[in-house]
Inverse folding.
């Protein structure tokens, strides 16, 4: 790779051994990718500094946090002193709910170790947003801004909706980017990589979060890791629609960017979205495809007896919490069921100002932050059958936690929590 003078200085160790190890890692990474140079970044989102007790013990680092960061975040055989972040950096979701440790079935010492991780990472200057939706709570990069983000649902939002630029980075590359302000100039950082390849003609109304989630699931399955261009959407999609569409498409496929003609920043027209090239594949998304998506998503549901309803994947916005509060106010979650709602710390703080937390608690539901069922491997004890309004979570719950899962609208899911029965229908 061609290095600028500041990059070479970091590689030579002039800014200390921590940044030197980070540059060494990034040069190895960039060369493996075939990148010729770096771009500057001042926006990094990852899980820097987080690790499990297993990893700590595997590397035999005891309480030495810099040593663990050197080995695990920077892939360095040598333990070095870790300096503060050079960029704006945020932490993503974690594996723990900080206020309800009783809800987790965790090994002894794991929660305390997690809390130490969090303090260490905050001490490096990382903003502990602890959410998969950093773009909802203060990290909203501008169009064209180079970023280094992890978390598939956040990456696809960053590229597609904000028009900012990131690949799906990993823990090591985000940790190194945060220390150096550099990331390889490759993939979605480059104009030529951002054009659509698959044309999707939408021929059925797409309005609700559920509609967008089902379409995201179907489109992701069809295009896999390619870039779909969605045409035929009249009303401008809202943030929550993009959030559910992108998360689903990134789960059933590996979609890291999409265009919605007339609505996303690099798709004023079909020609612009495709980069004036012919699409590699064309398909229609109509009522039959929607039904197919619904049936596939619900193929993992069998029993109608619902033990658990999970809402908040990706983490719920304030408006989604308000919708649920309208549906549950004055009612009670059924004694045979549970309702857990996941959001970010910042949104929960806002929810408290509106007394939403009281409505939720009075109904017997739980509002949680920082994590989700899939991340924490946590469901209410004895859960066999779950329901959720997230296509992504429907995709993961059966495979990760071995439970049955139903997918439906938020209203269907709340009804399931209140009655303990699944009565969802395809729209
Ligand atoms: Fe977020 Fe968990 Fe879904 S981290 S995107 S709520 S799987």
């Amino acid at each position: 790779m061609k290095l600028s003078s500041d990059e070479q200085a970091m590689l030579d160790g002039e800014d200390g051994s921590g940044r030197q190890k980070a540059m060494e890692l990034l040069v190895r990474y960039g060369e493996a990718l075939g990148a010729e140079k770096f771009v500057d970044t001042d926006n990094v989102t990852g899980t820097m500094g987080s690790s499990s007790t297993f990893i700590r013990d595997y590397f035999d680092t005891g309480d030495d946090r810099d040593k663990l960061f050197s080995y695990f975040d920077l892939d360095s055989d040598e333990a070095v002193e870790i300096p503060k972040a050079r960029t704006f950096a945020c932490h993503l979701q974690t594996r723990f709910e900080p206020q309800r440790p009783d809800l987790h079935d965790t090994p002894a010492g794991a929660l305390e170790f997690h809390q130490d991780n969090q303090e260490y990472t905050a001490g490096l200057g990382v903003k502990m947003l602890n959410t998969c939706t950093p773009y909802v709570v203060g990290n909203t990069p501008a169009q064209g801004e180079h970023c280094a983000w992890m978390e598939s649902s956040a990456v696809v939002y960053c590229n597609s909706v904000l028009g900012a630029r990131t690949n799906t980075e990993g823990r090591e590359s985000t940790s190194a980017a945060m220390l150096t302000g550099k990331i390889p100039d490759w993939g979605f950082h480059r104009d030529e990589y951002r054009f659509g390849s698959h044309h999707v003609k939408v021929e059925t109304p797409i309005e609700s979060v559920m509609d967008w989630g089902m379409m995201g699931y179907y489109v992701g399955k069809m295009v896999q890791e390619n870039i779909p261009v969605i045409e035929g959407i009249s009303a401008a999609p809202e943030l929550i629609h993009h959030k559910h569409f992108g998360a689903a498409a990134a789960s059933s496929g590996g979609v890291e960017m999409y265009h919605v003609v007339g609505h996303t920043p690099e798709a004023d027209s079909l020609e612009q979205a495709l980069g004036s090239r012919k699409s590699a594949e064309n398909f229609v998304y109509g009522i039959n495809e929607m039904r197919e998506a619904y049936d596939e998503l619900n193929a993992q549901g069998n029993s109608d007896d619902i033990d658990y309803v999970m809402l908040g994947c990706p983490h719920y916005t304030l408006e989604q919490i308000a919708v649920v509060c309208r549906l549950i106010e004055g009612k009670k979650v059924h004694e045979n069921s549970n309702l857990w709602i996941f959001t970010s710390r910042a949104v929960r703080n806002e929810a408290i100002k509106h007394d939403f937390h009281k409505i939720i608690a009075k109904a017997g539901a739980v509002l949680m932050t920082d994590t989700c069922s899939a991340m924490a491997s946590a469901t209410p004890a004895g859960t066999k059958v779950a329901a959720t309004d997230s296509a992504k979570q429907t995709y993961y719950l059966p495979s990760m936690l071995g439970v049955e899962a139903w997918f439906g609208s938020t209203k269907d899911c709340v009804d399931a929590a209140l009655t303990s029965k699944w009565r969802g229908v395809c729209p």
In short: The pocket of FE3-S4 cluster is lined by residues 93, 132, 153, 247, 313-315, 342, 372, 374-375, 392-393 (CB under 6 Å). The radius of gyration is 22 Å. Residues 17-33 form the longest helix (17 residues).
